[in-house]
């Protein structure tokens, strides 16, 4: 399965940059791909024009394969994004779909020669996505930064359960931030890993310095969930702003009342402008493993070396 994943994505290492709202720009995707992993330009948090521009920047900045992430539920009309992605089919290696029903979109991309990765968070949805034709599944556990699946299944439990019931490569996401996580994911039956939070705190990431420093300082227990009151689960770094949101949520606001506090722009304010008092920033529980702001290349190289070492040093039973 690992070999199949490497072939589908055309990469050296089984490591994927997760789609990241505001953060996943063309330069970061290119840096990840140049390091031998799989970079992805994210659609969320961008206008259509900026999404296209970031794809062009990635094309100019790497000769290595990279892809795009399309969270379909984030866009009022995902079809115009789909058409734009298809325009760049020759330059893209794969598409990942999240936040919505992937079924109508899978054949569209595959007919254009693009393998499709589908983000799921339960074994049942993994089977459905496989039946719908997904080439790769990204199984994301509840530790992950950003929007999580409502079932709240954690990575350690999720990966083997998904790997047991599907016949396509499974990528483990959520809580992986070093080589031990990569080795563990392989042991659980994954073919590779997807990183989010770890890549935010890198030199090439466009995240504001305040956000990067907050990730370096935070421990695993410094993340929490917002939007639960309206049936969503979104993992963010704790902050005074997030406290305000949670206090408001205790008054059981309607989704329309809560929206101004949790809309994407509020994420951009913290993530790009660094104003952590007036916006929220995504962060997963693996944040406790982040102690510095290395280059993307260092993250990938160290992770691969550490995973190899971990697998070699495992005690026998
Ligand atoms: C800053 C940030 C933004 C994210 N935005 C998206 C997104 O737009 N689309 C998506 O499918 N996943 C998104 N995610 C989830 C990641 O792609 C990835 O699956 C997750 O971060 C993995 O867990 P980790 O944060 O523990 O590494 C985001 C995560 C972070 C940290």
UniProtKB/TrEMBL annotation:
The keyword Oxidoreductase is assigned to this record: yes
Highest taxon in the source lineage: Bacteria
Gene Ontology molecular functions: monooxygenase activity
CDD domains according to UniProt: NPD_like
Pfam annotation, one family: NMO
Presence of the UniProt keyword Nuclease in the record: no
Keyword terms of this UniProt record: Flavoprotein, FMN, Monooxygenase, Oxidoreductase
General function of this protein: Nitronate monooxygenase that uses molecular oxygen to catalyze the oxidative denitrification of alkyl nitronates. Acts on propionate 3-nitronate (P3N), the presumed physiological substrate. Probably functions in the detoxification of P3N, a metabolic poison produced by plants and fungi as a defense mechanism.
Protein's name according to its UniProt entry: Probable nitronate monooxygenase
